[in-house]
Amino acid sequence: MSLNNIQHIVLVLSGKGGVGKSSVTTQLALGLSLQGHSVGVLDVDLTGPSIPRFFGAEGARVRQAPGGWLPVPVHEAQTRETRGGNNNSGGEGADSSGATIGALSCMSLGFILPSRGSAVVWRGPKKTAMVRQFLSDVLNTLDYLLIDTPPGTSDEHISLLETLLKDVQPPSRLSGAVVVTTPQAIAVSDVRKELNFCAKTGLRVLGVVENMAGFVCPHCSECTNVFSKGGGQAMAAEFEVPFLGRVPIDPAFVRLIEEGVRPSYPEGTMVGGREAEMRVKGNVDGEPSDTADKNAPLVQKYTSCSLYPVFEGIVTTLKQNVEAVS
């Protein structure tokens, strides 16, 4: 059973679609990797697998090995690059020399489907069987396994929890769940159902992330609260669970995922209501900054993103909450 080789298992949940759950999962994985941990991401959103797209691995395919499947590697363990004056310093330690980056891998139905546009028209029993096969047959040896789930409380959730509660020993290695919401009231009202689901099933809530809490303008560099503010924090207080933090919308992160371009910002960019000490990345060897290092690993380029210091704090708090229940 591959689950025996995983130290901490964390589910990423939301009661509503479109709140950026897969984006949060991706950045939690990158943040944990940048803190030196080996990380795996399991995508059990079977009808809308998006993790391959986020990690730029849509063309990858699952490989067989004795005893199961090998996950798709995103990057191997490596040393963090030092970019000196050209780096957008995303917080303390963002360009620290010699820091170790942990290996990152992922598994998704998207690696098995014949094409990106293939529809998954499956009934509940087949979904349940697929989730159980992912948990039993994917060969992982990890510090952290993040499980990206579909919205709501569907067959996938029930099968996932039944299998984890049965097979994970000791039970404390099933660390708990991160719940993602957006600030506005209509999203929070749906996500409350997910917190009730966690309470009914005995799944610990490690924290709430309030996503899309502001918009970082790429021109004037100001962060504006386009979807209101504070709904996720208020919900966390109501349910007496930890609040991990707010995550703004950053178009540069979207461009990083879609085009592989390292983020750069105007000086004085405001992130989440506080100033992030960012420097505009200049040209490298005379090449335009958006093409100079397009082939660099995603994890290296992510350190230049304004969301990196935000998630650095979220990941640090998450690890503390995980250790508290281990």
Describe what this molecule looks like in 3D:
This protein has one domain: P-loop containing nucleotide triphosphate hydrolases (Rossmann fold, 3-Layer(aba) Sandwich). The chain is 32% helix and 22% strand. The chain is built from nine helices and 15 strands. A hairpin with a 2-residue loop joins strand 3 and strand 4. About 9% of the residues have low confidence.
Number of strands: 15
Major β-sheet annotation:
9 strands, mixed
Mean pLDDT: 85
Given the C-alpha coordinates, what overall shape results?
globular
Tell me the distance between the termini.
20 Å
In the CATH classification, which architecture applies? 3-Layer(aba) Sandwich
CATH class: Alpha Beta
CATH topology assignment: Rossmann fold
What is the number of helices? Answer: 9
**Radius of gyration based on Cα positions:** 19 Å
Number of domains: 1
Q: Approximately how much helix is present in the residues?
A: 25-40%
In short:
The protein is α/β, with parallel strands linked by helices and 326 residues long.
Give the helices and strands, then pairings.
Elements: E1 6-13, H1 21-34, E2 39-43, H2 51-54, E3 63-65, E4 68-70, E5 72-75, E6 78-79, E7 100-101, E8 104-108, H3 124-137, E9 142-148, H4 155-167, E10 174-181, H5 185-201, E11 205-216, E12 223-224, H6 231-239, E13 243-249, H7 251-259, E14 270-271, E15 274-275, H8 298-302, H9 307-325
Parallel strand pairs: 1-9, 1-10, 2-8, 2-9, 10-11, 11-13
Antiparallel strand pairs: 3-4, 5-8, 6-7, 11-12, 14-15
Helix pairs in contact: 1-9, 3-4, 5-6
